[in-house]
């Protein structure tokens, strides 16, 4: 039974999505058909199709009381829009259906687990906020909230856990039972990821604290995901209020990947590695699905919370995009990510060029331009000569463009999107160290409003939104010193 609030959201979608000019939308990155989106939710395989939900305010390009928007796909690239799945229509979620996850139950139902937010004005004038985990069962289109909601609340928390910051359950089945991880805040005010266990997904008990910040790594920890991969255990999470945690990590809302094993005594994750998940400016709240063929596929919100108040001029009808889904691997103890292989089937004719030499010059290559493409580059200093800096300019016109600099002596890559449609007052530049002894390999996915960069076959990824006008399609290569360049460029084709 659909509530008035859900009907209103669905009617709004029906009346407004068809009117959005497709030329304003990303070509292959997912956004809301209208309104605002943030975190991906409920990424799951249900009856042979991948369903994905997202934090959603259909009515405006700003965050407001959260709904769940809904799409599905078979190939991770072409998404079919479905009507909004959840609206904040019960007392226990009246202030928002926050992030969560989904799975197919053994009896063929699609189970969503999300955080219901409820704020109450207390007699003393203060506001009490409760975040509790709730369920909804459905058929891949319509969902009924479970009458016993909420199913997991503050009473299950270990001593001193926060009832206000308790959110974003990631659910999975293992053996005969269910597990979920959720973000919480410890008595020291900083974040933790807690593990809960249930025989039936309805009754939950606390099992262990998988990891905690101890005020060392930001404050609240949001949107955890936890899974085995290549013989290790991987915990993805999104810490808030990170400050000065070394050059690898961006301040503010950032992302963290912990790789290790489960300690059989404490149930905690041993930490063999701590790394950012993405080295760009716009990446948050990733969530994964285990694909039918065994791949672990991740998608994330391609946006930085700290810059959500800035809008492109002229305005776009949507706000918030998701990354291209990425295949994850653990190799040499590190997280590797590559765009889903399905993307290769969208490649048009190739432009290839090997051993192009550049000496203190800027070049354009015939056939290499555009704003919807898959570009592979290998950059090497020429033997016996020096390469001080190599610059790739994308979305180029006149002196404008997004610049990617590679400085071999420093082993750094810097991406600078200044002048690409976002104000100078926000963070537009990001540098990170790369491994490049003999050559640096880059893969760039460019879309109307974004760039995703993959370094050295997925050893690092970096995501950026950009709002440069679409007429800016130039691509330039500049060497300060001498460089050899191999290049492979494909337009990406979508109907
Ligand atoms: C992360 C987050 C989640 C929360 C949701 C609300 O971006 O803050 O913790 O569930 O967004 O929209």
List keywords for this structure.
binds beta-D-fructofuranose, mainly beta, 5-stranded mixed beta sheet
Detailed description of the structure:
The chain is mostly beta strands. It has 2 domains: 4-342, Tachylectin-2, Chain A; 344-492, Jelly Rolls (Sandwich). 3% of the residues lie in helices and 51% in strands. It has 1 helix and 31 strands. Strands 22, 23, 24, 25, 26, 27, 28, 29, 30 and 31 form a 10-stranded antiparallel β-sheet that branches. It has a 5-stranded mixed β-sheet with strand order 4-3-2-1-19. Strands 5-6-7-8 form a 4-stranded antiparallel β-sheet, with no helix packed on it. The mean pLDDT is 96. Residues 38-39, 55, 66, 98-99, 115, 167-168, 222-223, 284-285 line the site of beta-D-fructofuranose. The site of beta-D-fructofuranose (FRU) has 13 residues, from strand 1, strand 5, strand 9, strand 13 and strand 17.
Describe the protein's topology:
Elements: H1 4-16, E1 35-46, E2 49-57, E3 67-73, E4 79-86, E5 97-104, E6 110-121, E7 127-138, E8 143-145, E9 166-174, E10 177-185, E11 191-198, E12 205-212, E13 221-229, E14 232-239, E15 256-260, E16 273-275, E17 284-290, E18 296-301, E19 318-319, E20 326-331, E21 334-339, E22 347-363, E23 373-381, E24 387-397, E25 400-407, E26 412-416, E27 429-433, E28 440-447, E29 450-455, E30 460-465, E31 474-492
Parallel strand pairs: 1-19
Antiparallel strand pairs: 1-2, 2-3, 3-4, 5-6, 6-7, 7-8, 9-10, 10-11, 11-12, 13-14, 14-15, 15-16, 17-18, 18-20, 20-21, 22-31, 23-28, 23-31, 24-25, 24-31, 25-26, 26-27, 28-29, 29-30
């Amino acid at each position: 039974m659909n509530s008035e609030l859900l009907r209103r959201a669905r009617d709004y979608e029906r009346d407004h999505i068809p009117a959005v000019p497709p030329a304003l939308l990303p070509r292959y990155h997912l956004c809301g058909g209208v309104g605002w989106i943030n975190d991906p939710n409920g990424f799951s395989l249900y009856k042979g199709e991948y369903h994905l939900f997202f934090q959603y305010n259909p009515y405006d390009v700003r965050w407001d009381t959260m709904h769940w928007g809904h799409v599905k796909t078979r190939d991770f690239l072409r998404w079919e829009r479905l009507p909004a799945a959840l609206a904040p229509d019960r007392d226990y979620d009246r202030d928002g259906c926050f992030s969560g996850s989904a799975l197919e139950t053994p009896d063929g139902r699609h189970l969503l687990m999300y955080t219901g937010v409820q704020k109450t004005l207390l007699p003393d004038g203060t506001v009490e906020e409760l975040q509790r985990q709730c369920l909804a069962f459905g058929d891949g289109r319509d969902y009924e909230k479970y009458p016993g909601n909420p199913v997991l609340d503050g009473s299950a928390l270990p001593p001193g856990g926060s009832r206000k910051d308790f959110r974003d359950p990631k659910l999975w089945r293992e053996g005969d039972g269910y597990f979920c991880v959720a973000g919480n805040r410890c008595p020291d005010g900083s974040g933790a990821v807690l593990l809960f266990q249930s025989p039936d997904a309805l009754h939950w008990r606390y099992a262990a604290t998988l990891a905690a910040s101890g005020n060392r790594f930001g404050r609240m920890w949001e949107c955890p995901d936890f899974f085995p991969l290549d013989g290790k255990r991987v915990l993805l999470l999104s810490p808030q209020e990170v400050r000065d945690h070394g050059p690898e990590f961006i301040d503010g809302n950032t992302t963290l990947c912990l790789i290790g094993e489960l300690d059989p005594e404490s149930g905690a994750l041993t930490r063999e590695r701590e790394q950012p998940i993405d080295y760009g400016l716009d990446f948050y709240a990733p969530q994964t699905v285990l694909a039918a063929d065994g791949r672990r596929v991740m998608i994330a919100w391609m946006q930085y919370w700290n810059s959500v108040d800035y809008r492109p001029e002229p305005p776009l009808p949507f706000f918030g995009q998701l990354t291209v889904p990425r295949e994850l691997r653990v190799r040499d103890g590190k997280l590797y990510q590559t765009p889903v292989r399905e993307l290769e089937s969208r490649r048009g004719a190739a432009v290839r060029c090997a051993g192009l030499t550049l000496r203190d010059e800027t070049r354009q290559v015939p056939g290499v331009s555009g704003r919807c493409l898959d570009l592979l580059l290998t950059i090497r200093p020429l033997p016996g000569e020096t390469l001080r800096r190599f610059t790739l300019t994308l979305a180029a016109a006149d002196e404008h463009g997004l610049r990617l600099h590679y400085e071999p002596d420093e082993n750094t890559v810097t991406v600078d999107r200044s002048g690409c449609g976002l104000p100078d007052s926000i963070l537009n530049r990001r540098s990170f160290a790369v491994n490049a002894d003999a050559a640096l390999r880059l893969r760039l996915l460019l879309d109307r409003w974004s760039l995703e960069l993959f370094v050295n076959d997925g050893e690092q990824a970096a995501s950026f939104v950009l709002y440069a006008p679409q007429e800016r399609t130039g691509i330039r290569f500049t060497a300060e010193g001498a460089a050899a360049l191999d290049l492979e460029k494909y337009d990406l084709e979508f109907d």
